[in-house]
Amino acid sequence: MRKTLSILILLLILSCDKSDNKTIDYVAFEITVPKSWSEYEINGIDSYVSGLITDKNDTLIFDLGWYSPDLTKNPELLVFEESEYAEFTTEQKEKLKGTKHLVVADYTSADFQAKDYLKYVFEIDSIDCFEAKFIKPRNKGFGASGIYIDSLKGGGPNSNKTRLSFYGNNLSDSTQVEFFKALKSIKLTKYCE
Predict the structure, then answer these.
(1) Which residue has the higher pLDDT, 9 or 104?
(2) DSSP 3-19
(3) Which residues sit opposite 104 in a β-bridge?
(4) Which pLDDT tens digit goes with each residue over 65-105?
(5) CA 29 to CA 19: how far, in whole Å?
(6) Which residues make Cβ contacts (< 8 Å) with residue 162, sequence separation at least 6?
(7) Which of 38, 69, 146, 178 has the most CB atoms around its CB within 10 Å?
(8) DSSP strand E in 8-90: where?
């Protein structure tokens, strides 16, 4: 009896799913995320758009198509004219307190180094068989975090390319770590051979 009970308990333990993750198949790619995250459906107009909701209620959205955005192509600066800053809400001003920013009388005549106030930094890494930009805000939790892949298919200066971007805004450190881990798990089975 004891032996049978021990075997049953051992089988029960071994049969339990020990993984805290799940894989979501978006047809164009698969991604492994924490089990506590859920899918979020969006209707795209000119591309395939969808996303995830994290356990902290952050929305992570991907855009797969010709016009998927690369945040590094339009570098935002955290430099504001006094008149613009005066119109910010109290919440916006509070968020800025923890960031490296600059308030100037006149943007065009102010003396500053733009590179010192860029909103985003990025690193090149790989996802499956593609090179990707991993983008994060220079000031933690203030801006978008995610990836951009310039060309999954297509190419040349005058052709349409299929691009992938996947971003979340104002993520906590722990969510950003989980998100980047999930992004590294992406399998672009439709595009990698």
Answers:
(1) 104
(2) HHHHHHHHHHHHHS---
(3) 81
(4) 988 888 888 778 899 999 999 998 898 888 888 788 999 99
(5) 21
(6) 64, 65, 66, 151, 152, 153, 154, 191
(7) 146
(8) 21-25, 30-34, 38-41, 48-53, 59-65, 79-81
Query: Which bin fits 162, alpha (ψ -120 to 50), beta or left (φ > 0)?
Result: beta
- pLDDT tens digit string along 135-152? 999 888 788 999 999 988
- The structure tokens 């809400």 sit at 89
pLDDT score, position 145: 95
15 vs 24: CA distance, rounded Å: 22
Question: What residue spans of the chain are helical by DSSP H?
Answer: 2-15, 82-86, 90-97, 173-184
Pairing of strands 59-65, 48-53: antiparallel
Contacts of 75 (CB under 8 A, 6+ apart): 114, 118, 119, 120
- 177 vs 187: CA distance, rounded Å: 19
Burial (CB count <10 Å: 0-12, 13-18, 19+), residue 169:
middle
Phi, psi of 166 (to 5 degrees): -145, 110
